[in-house]
């Protein structure tokens, strides 16, 4: 009888240890899963941050290129205007030379 009670106590103690072991394993498993989920969230956040940074950088590049394009177009327009002015000056000079020549020829005829 005493032996039987001792065996029952040992069985209960082994069961308690088993339950504690299983509880500990379950807690560890739960912690591991929670950690994995948190890491996944952190990775998603990092990806979003990188995408935002990339978008901002792209916008900066587009802005810079647009600014440069505008500058080049302004320079081109300025050069075209300068060329037109030179062309007009040349035509004016040619007209003046022709008038001079005509005046000289008229004087020679008289």
From TrEMBL:
Segments of this protein annotated with the region Disordered: 1-23, 67-110
Compositional bias annotation for Basic and acidic residues: 70-110
Protein name: Uncharacterized protein
Organism: Entamoeba histolytica KU27
């Amino acid at each position: 009888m005493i032996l039987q009670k001792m065996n029952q106590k040992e069985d209960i103690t082994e069961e308690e240890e088993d339950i504690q072991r299983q509880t500990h394993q379950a807690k560890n498993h739960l912690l591991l899963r929670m950690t994995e989920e948190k890491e996944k969230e952190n990775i998603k956040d990092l990806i979003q941050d990188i995408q935002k940074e990339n978008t901002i950088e792209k916008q900066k590049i587009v802005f810079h290129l647009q600014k440069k394009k505008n500058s080049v177009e302004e320079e081109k327009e300025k050069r075209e205007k300068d060329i037109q002015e030179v062309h007009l000056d040349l035509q004016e000079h040619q007209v003046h030379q022709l008038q001079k020549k005509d005046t000289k020829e008229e004087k020679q005829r008289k």
